[in-house]
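Section 3.1: Structural characterization of target chains.
Under the original work plan, the team committed to producing a structural model for every single-chain target entering the pipeline before any wet-lab resources were allocated. The record below documents one such target. The sequence was received from the expression subgroup and is listed exactly as submitted; it comprises 69 residues.
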Amino acid sequence: MKDSPIGNLSVTFTDKGSTSMDFWLDLLFGNAIGLSSMIVIFVALGMISFMGGFFVYKAMTSSETDESL
């Protein structure tokens, strides 16, 4: 077993092979760059989803003869 400190906590992992959960935990909490990268990716996906949904909402609720532009 190996100990991996995360802040003030100490988490113990067993060496039973690499799983996808180990990959994501290492990516998120392995270093600050990995966590920052994942935050940027999720924020970007959230913004894209919001803008896409807002565009569809505005397209569905606008009238065809709207001349206020």
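Residues 32-61 form the longest helix (30 residues).
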